[in-house]
Structures
1.
Amino acid sequence: MVKLIARRLALGVLTIVLVSGIIFVGVQALPGDSCTAYLGRAAQGKRLENCRRDFGLERPVLARYIEWTLGAVRGDFGVSLKGKKPISETVGTRFRNTVILGITASILGVPLAILLGIIAALWRDRLPDLWVSTTAIFAMTIPEFVSSTVLILIFSVWLGWLPGIVITRPDAPLFEFLSDIILPIVVLAFVMTAHILRMVRTSVIDVLASDYVQMAQLKGVPYWQMVFKHVLPNALLPTINLVALTIAWLLGGTLVIEVVFNYPGLGRLMVQAIFFRDLAMVQAIALILATLYIALNLFADLLTLVANPRLRTMRSS
Amino acid sequence: MMATTNIEHVKKKSVFVGLLAVLSAMISRPSGLLGLALVVFHIVLAIVSPAIAPYDFKDVNAQIILNTPSYEHWFGTDSLGRDVLTRTMLGGRQALFVTTIATVLAIAWGGLLGVLLGLVGGRLDELLMRIVDAFLCLPWILVLLLIVVMVGSESGVLILTLGFFYGIPVIRMARAATHDVVARDFVTAAQARGESRSTIVWRELVPNVLDVLLVEGAMRWSWMLLAFSSLSFLGFGIAPPTPDWGLMISNSLSIMALAPWTALAPVVALSSLIIGINLSADALAKAVGIDRAQRAPV
């Protein structure tokens, strides 16, 4: 068991190293470097050389990569060329804001998704399922910025209940975000619910068709007892992993939502950084998002391992 | 494992007759009819809109900035005094053009590779599927953003990028479908009859996998529209002044309190196209006997 967990952790760290390499190489492949972006039209001759020397850009790629990763481990992502401020300062509060958005949306979305998924599966191909499944498909395919726009139209332009655009400072205390954050959360939770409920539905349907459930039926176990004792525990365990993966995957989706609502999170910072070619910032955010993704993945793996005794023996053998 | 279990082997007379049968089965449901009608409407509109649009899409007019909807301008005018109706009518052309070709591309290469891997199996299969899994983990919008920034957002680039990345999950789908079909009784029967390998592949396997790919393609299409319009919404897609729904919605957001009508038309247009594609995909899935709601997204 301990060995198994250790191996997972090692694998996770290895993946992060790999991803950091890919991100570094990918950003290096962008045309121009930090100095051409920083100096803009003045990026010529002596000034460009000086700037490159100041930021150490003329050194070999490998040396810079090693320096960057070692810094990143200590939480030092270098200096943003735009603001001339340490990246870690800017990123810190933005990271907090994105995490708040993600966590609250998950707290709302995940239980709702599980409930709806179970309902859809138990009433498969009947009215509840048709409604839930159809709505889910629309929720997943209508772009986030469209549903956000509609919500802004209804709740801030027509009804005037909620602010359509966040104007709170990024580093403001939490409670000041309270009214700003409602619409972004609703949109994110909506998409999240749709993705997860479909997985839950599939899983429950699979278990319903399994031999042991049919056996229980034949034995004459009452329907709801069968559902709660035989079906749900077996159906929901495998979804833990998928749920974590989906939440992590949707972190990409928060990017659009943050831009729509002008929400000061990591995603919007990333878009701005790409727009202004602030390469050091792009690198840092990409690495943070990837690490978050891998960490969530790892956490889900371990949780499944702990919650599902069958896996412990199966996988370590 | 995926929901190909309902596919029954049908002797297909020809691809054309088969398609016709599927089409009529789709139309027989009200939701399918509505979906197809919406899709056809949008495609026809995209083709004829340059001829029937009431104004020029780049006609800037300082006199009529942010006018409310009127008889002359049914959906009002935007912040540059351009006719919103005209721009909405033209705004889907790039999106439809790019995503349609990209969908065909994705289904073609993903489907081909998936079927091959499903048939060959072994080490190569194992290795490539690991790579596919790794790709599926990446948040797609980040990948798209980086590529567009790196190589630009011309239609050709977008087609290739979308076609490539959205083909990756298709590999998975086609591979699973192949495994599923190969394990079927009718394949065993064909083997027992002593049919040659190529006959089995072309007569038994391909028609059945094609059904799955068709449904998959319809779904991919709406995902690609989502990606395409999100990119232009963020300002990394089609460059202005070419009208595009994503870009129009993005522009309307900052003036939402002043001129909400500038958002309304593109929102309705984009949503109706996506809903149309989804209703069609649903009807298509039912017509060929696949439970679409059971498949994993991405």
2.
Amino acid sequence: MSVAIIDYGSGNLHSAAKAFERAARSFENPDKVIVTRDPDAVFRADRIVLPGVGAFADCRKGLDSVDGMIEAMTEAVRVKARPFFGICVGMQLMATHGKENVTTDGLNWIGGDVEKIAPRDESLKIPHMGWNTLDVVREHPVLERLPLGPKGRHAYFVHSYHLNATNEADVLARADYGGPVTAMVGKDTAIGTQFHPEKSQRFGLALIANFLKWKP
Amino acid sequence: MILFPAIDLKNGQCVRLEQGDMARATVFNLDPAAQAQSFAAQGFEYLHVVDLDGAFAGKPMNAQAVEAMLKVIKMPVQLGGGIRDLATVEAWLAKGITRVIIGTAAVRDPAFVKEAAAKFPGRVAVGLDARDGKVAVEGWAETSTVTALEIAQRFEDAGVAAIIFTDIARDGLLKGLNLEATIALADSISIPVIASGGLASIEDIKAMLSPRAKKLAGAIAGRALYDGRVDPAAALELIRSARGV
């Protein structure tokens, strides 16, 4: 089995690849993790990971600039039903639009827009940088046996925007940062995290391992 | 084989589309319940219903019309369009639908189909729409490079009752069923396959009854029944005599 991490010039690819390789090593037959900008390799992969850091519009532009990548991803995930993991802006790209400075079209896999977070408490800074616990909104195979909730493990966030999903059923988990922040979404065979599992230590690795085990 | 008369619902009315295009809908009957009753009176034994608005919206949109039909007929009904979660499957089955047809979700969310089929064995069918053998999703607005067979194979041994294989290029155009592609699919999987799209004349019924089509479980007839190209009595008589009863 292979995991393709999409290289489109806007990911923290190295740490993502390392985390997926580490999580894969916990299995008897570790998945082969590849970092690639080849749409065919993405189309053929058993699992697909879309990382992303920076501004929504820049990430979208980066993805568009790799010829055939969006088509390959979309077919692999939305027709071949390959499991997909979007990380941070990679997750935000699953939305209908990004509203970071300008309105940009997302992939529209998950209805909703990416909007600026607005913590009620003014002492809470934007960007939101740091560790938060997660509240599960909907049970999901990738969340199985993870210590979540107020006394659970923490996930690492760095962001100023979040995906405000239209359908509550598409939200898997939220964090509290002066109000609810979408931490994780999931629909069909795709999931996405606003936080960085690759920087969330043991919790992040356990989540990635669940993703690698998931057979939707 | 079973000949399924089709009722496509749009805004509470019975319509037929051409090649799945919502803009090319012809209203055939304002009263779906009356249409269902008329099919029952003609001797059909299993009704095929599609909630077209539901297919586009991703959730049931013509529930009232469906319930009105269920009230007035006794024959089993299979229903598709906008069925994308287990709660919707359960609700329809509880309302008296014999089997639900899952389309887009069967492509995007195979785990859901497997779960539904395991929970309701024999009551979940998969609708696969193809253009040149390649699967199309989301109310047919998008086509892919993935073959219908590839998707169908996911559901082998999952307890899926049938695969309804529609050739979009022919649907509503009365060019005849795409039997070659449908038989090829039926020969490659163990799930019963129902042919759909383009049934135009009694010749299609005869072809369905020929030995090479013996693996096909049935065919869906739409426009040809509404405009009189296929005489229900003659078609049903042909099928009955082929059954040898």
